[in-house]
Amino acid sequence: MSTATSIDIVARTVRRTVIVCLVAAAFALVAGVVSGHPGVGLALAVGLGLGSINGLLVRWSAGVAVAFGAVSLGRLFAFTGLALVAGIFLGLRETWLVIVGLALAQLALVAMAARQALAR
Questions:
Q1: Between 8 and 50, whose confidence is greater?
Q2: Model confidence over 42-90: pLDDT tens digits?
Q3: CB 52 within 8 A of CB 29
Q4: Distance, CA of 99 to chain centre
Q5: Beta carbons within 10 angstroms of residue 88's beta carbon
Q6: Torsion sign (Cα): 77, 98, 114, 14
Q7: Which pLDDT score is estimated for 70?
Q8: In 10 A of CB 27, how many CB atoms?
């Protein structure tokens, strides 16, 4: 398999993950508002949104000549920090929900990648 083909597969997988995360974020936001807990829905939506941005950066880092593990670790530290800051702005009681949203986005990325790998 050529490198271009691998990068195309990563791009397609990340694109699908971003769509899934953004749909889940919209659902979380609507569900939070409908249930009378808009802060909860917003916190989950922010976490899912941050996680989807991380997915886009995964696609970018797949073509970089730096060790993927090093780039991934730095990216995950940065996004965890962003999630904590976002959670503080949303309210300390909801901070953990931003982290949960971020974790759910990462699980979605892993699930999509595993699905793609198993399909081969």
A1: 50
A2: 999 999 999 988 878 876 776 666 676 777 788 888 988 998 999 899 8
A3: no
A4: 11
A5: 12
A6: negative
A7: 75
A8: 14
In the chain, the amino acid numbered 97 is L
Q: Where are the alpha helices (DSSP H) in the chain?
A: 3-34, 38-61, 68-90, 95-119
Structure confidence at residue 28 (pLDDT): 97
Distance, CA of 62 to CA of 6 (rounded, Å)? 9
**Residue 3 confidence (pLDDT) above 60:** no
Position of tokens 């300390």?
Answer: 92
Domain with 28 in it = 3-119
Residue 66: phi, psi to the nearest 5?
A: -90, 155
Task: Compute CA distances 86 → 13, 39, 75, 94, 106, whole Å.
Answer: 27, 12, 16, 10, 17
Tokens representing residue 26 in the block: 């919209």
The number of folded domains in the chain is 1
Q: Dig out the tokens for 31 from the structure.
A: 């569900």
pLDDT for the residue numbered 58: 73
